[in-house]
Target: Peptidase A1 domain-containing protein
Amino acid sequence: MLCKSIQQTMEEQGVLETFLRDHPKADPIAKYCFNNDAVAYEPITNYIIGTPPKNFLVLFDMGSSNLWVPSIYCQSQACSDHNRFNPSLSSTFRNNGQTYTLSYGSGSLSVRNTIVNNQEFGLSENELSDLFYYSDFDGILGMAYPSMAVGNSPTVMQGMLHQPTRQYGGELILGGVDPQLYSEALDSLCPGVPPRFAIGNQATGLCSEGCQAIADTRTFLLAVPQQYMGSFLQATGAQQAQNGDFVVHCSYIQSMPTITFIIGGAQFPLSPSAYVFNNNGYCRLGIEPLWILGDVFLKEYYSVYDMANNRVGFAFSA
Model:
């Protein structure tokens, strides 16, 4: 299932310009899927909480570690428009009394931790209406390391590592891999190997000793550090528009260079059609000034996150 972008929804509702004006230094939309060509989350209709079970749609986020869903305690417009958990209707609900605040871009929410079947999760008590109201998902399932968990909450991934897990078919598989979904060996599955990159057929000389990078499903764009942006813009012929976008002439896309990431000795190329977005004749680079392999990269390859062995792997999709 493809998510409808928050940006597109806010544009349709006529509130995007006001939101960006009120939050000039933030770009929260980039964290949650920009267009319908990218899969930013995989809804699991049988992801259930409570007894009897209640279904929630969650965003699988590699950039955070907490699991939370809206609760009946939350009266903001963002919560009222989504599925909400009612603790009084669950016979297995147990409250540990902890509260904390989570921040996402310029959006934030306050949650109360609870324990259901020995798995802690958060119940939101307040959500930023002008951001979460326009999201298709109800809550967020953080899949990053425990050290990133706010409130020291045990993560879902921690629980899975210590008990037999069930595999879910589709784009997301928990507890294993499906060799039918990738065409070559996962040669890049190795701990801590910094990526290098080339533009076209030429090595850039940048990151020659490797650079640290993050593979983050919450980030839609391909993020490139500011010190390397000049090389990218020169190679692609892009210009920065007044709104901050890096734009190119749409007729030039086919002649633009391929960007190749070298990870664990394996090459992973991105064609111009993968990193340039054409929105009715308005073409922009899917790049921002950081070092994050967001959905622009991840949607092109089969990716594996081996938390037990601190490894990340990529392979060509079948």
User: Anything to note?
Assistant: The first strand starts at residue 48 and ends at 49. The chain has two domains: 6-172, 187-316. Residues 25-46, 165-170 have pLDDT under 50 and may be disordered.
